[in-house]
Specification:
about 30% helix, eight-stranded mixed sheet, globular, binds 3-acetylpyridine adenine dinucleotide, about 525 residues, 20 strands, 17 helices, alpha/beta
């Protein structure tokens, strides 16, 4: 061992030893910190941002607001909801950040949080059954458990456009928006991408931009927001029992077994309820039967086209034939998105017809010519589900990195753990409900499972827990079989990993919170079946 290595080892040996180190200060990380501390564990949270909020800290672009309604989108801890009132049913990012401040104060979280601290690497020390965790500022800590709450969208995806760095104006990805803000007023603004982020930016930029150009590859099948009264305790009860952890119950019949009039009546009712009711509250076979799905697409299409004046634009935004089945790519919620395209200061570029060939200092060049811009917004999404984990240099037993292990696709057991990486648990990660579940619902349900697991380990004097390769293989095959029963593989979405060039195609989320939790709780009740405990 040379002197550099030996001083490194010395430093690691001297590092503070925690029961658990949590990475990420969004809903999952906050819940873990609160609950593990309550249970007497010595725990600390590292957050790369300067504040709490997770995605709500980073995605502070104009118009960013949650599209899961409150109070579904908050903690169900009575001490918290009793004294908190939202101003809007779908709160904006800044109100969500205020909510996190409120939670911080009530639960006294910050004393165990280090902000501005990005975890860059972690290595499992087999001799001690501990993780050695390093941050970009040189901090080293040791922890028995390494709990990753990095969220599904902490690694922005920026397309590899030729000349992107040469652009002379302002250029931002929605997930890395400047904290000090940026204004659209009087500028020629280009927005690439029409997912949930793109829809929200487009709506805001359309108000003040001198001109707004929307570069669309796939039309978003966006749904209207509406308002409604709140009954907190009843809503919290129902959300534990529904498919996506919301308070929306679906109609258990097939869309094809009812008359067209009855079908339309339900669709109209869901439409008027607003939010995700139209997506989640429909008939039982919408996501599995193409003919049933088509009835839902057609209703959406006709409603949406009626709002767009120019028939050529209507063909682009709400085509007569579906670009993919309805709801297998995440719908977004919108307020005046379709009316934006009736304005004189807005134009649409279909990048399937007119691909972006390069970015130049003056703007974006397509096959059709130059679109001059002062600001370029990349609403191009995230390396979802896996990117937040694999961007950290995590080395398990045998020195293999998580990124290497998942080269052919994510492999987990119960969406919590992966073999070869003992004592590492991740929440809202791949092969868990994550993207199919309301965030706070998952944070609490998955969160309690992790808390119980760590308590079980402590009570039974165990120091090491690891998923078996066999359990992981079975879970992966189980999820793949579920995917094959649905229409999800029919869209190129981040649900399938298909938004990132070269990323393996697989269903990255587990559909159905109750079935998922049932599996997790059953494994726990059988002394953590599928894991080896030492
Ligand atoms: O990202 P996305 P997002 N050239 O991946 C396009 C949550 N969220 O940030 O569809 C041209 O959905 C891409 O085109 P296509 C929510 O779960 C929630 O919008 O792949 N275009 C697509 O239009 C959401 O689902 C909220 O053909 C390119 C867009 O960029 C998730 O985060 C708000 C391109 C990316 O859409 C991600 O949403 C915001 C290229 N090279 C986000 N590459 C709320 O709660 C990509 N695109 C409201």
């Amino acid at each position: 061992m040379n002197s550099v290595q030996s001083s490194q080892t010395q430093k690691d040996d001297d590092a503070e030893v925690l029961d658990a180190l949590i990475v990420g200060g969004g809903f999952n990380g906050v819940y873990q910190l609160h609950r593990l501390r309550q249970e007497g564990f010595k725990v600390r949270l590292f957050e790369a941002g300067a504040d709490l909020g997770g995605v709500w800290y980073w995605n502070c672009y104009p118009g960013a607001r949650v599209d899961s309604h409150v109070p579904i989108y908050e903690f169900s801890i009575e001490e918290l909801w009793r004294d908190w009132n939202w101003t809007e049913r779908f709160p904006a990012w800044d109100e969500l950040c205020r909510y996190f401040h409120y939670v911080d104060k009530k639960l006294d979280l910050s004393r165990d949080i280090r902000f501005g601290t990005r975890v860059s690497a972690a290595e499992f020390d087999e001799a001690r059954d501990q993780w050695v965790i390093r941050t970009t500022d040189g901090t080293v800590v040791r922890a028995r458990y390494f709990i990753l709450c990095t969220g599904f969208a902490s690694k922005p995806y920026i397309p590899n456009y030729k000349g992107l760095e040469s652009f002379a104006g302002e250029s931002f990805h929605t997930g890395l928006w400047p904290q000090e803000g940026a204004s659209f007023t009087g500028k020629r603004v280009g927005v690439v991408g029409t997912g949930a982020s793109g829809v929200q930016v487009v709506q805001e930029a359309s108000k003040d931009a001198a001109h707004l150009t929307v570069f669309q590859r796939t039309p978003i099948l966006a749904l209207p927001m509406q308002q409604r009264k709140l009954d907190y305790p009843e809503i919290f009860r129902i959300r534990r029992e529904t498919f996506g952890g919301f308070d929306i119950l679906r109609d258990e019949r097939s869309a094809l077994e009812v008359s067209p009039e009855e079908r339309c009546a339900l669709y109209e009712k869901l439409w008027q309820e607003g939010g995700f009711h139209y997506w989640i509250g429909g008939f039982a076979d919408i996501l599995t039967n193409e003919d049933a799905n088509r009835t839902m697409y057609d209703f959406w299409r006709d409603k949406t086209r009626a709002r767009i004046k120019d028939p050529a634009l209507a063909d682009k935004l709400a085509p007569m034939e579906p670009p993919h089945p309805f709801g297998v790519k995440r719908p977004s919620l919108e307020q005046w998105y379709y009316e934006v395209f009736n304005q004189d200061n807005v134009s649409l570029v279909d990048v399937r017809e007119m691909p972006i060939t390069e970015i130049v200092p003056e703007g974006v060049r397509t096959a059709d010519g130059l679109v001059e811009l002062d600001m370029l917004v990349l609403a191009t999404g995230f390396d979802a589900a896996t990117g937040g984990l694999t961007q950290i240099d995590i080395r398990g037993t045998g020195g293999v990195t998580l990124k290497e292990k998942w080269t052919e696709g994510a492999r987990t057991y119960l969406g919590f753990a992966t073999s070869g990486f003992p004592n590492m648990l991740f929440l809202y990660g791949p092969q868990s409900p994550a993207g199919f579940s309301n965030g706070p619902t998952s944070a609490e349900l998955q969160g309690e499972w992790v808390v119980d697991c760590l308590k079980h380990m402590r009570e039974n004097n165990k120091g090491r827990i690891e998923a078996t390769a066999q359990a992981e293989e079975e879970w992966t095959q189980f999820l793949s079989a579920i995917a094959d029963m649905t229409l999800f593989p029919r869209a190129d979405s981040w649900y399938m990993g298909a938004n990132i060039p070269g990323k393996p195609r697989q269903l990255l989320n587990f559909p159905g919170v109750p079935m998922y939790m049932d599996r997790c709780n059953t494994a726990a009740a059988k002394d953590y079946e599928g894991f080896v405990l030492d």
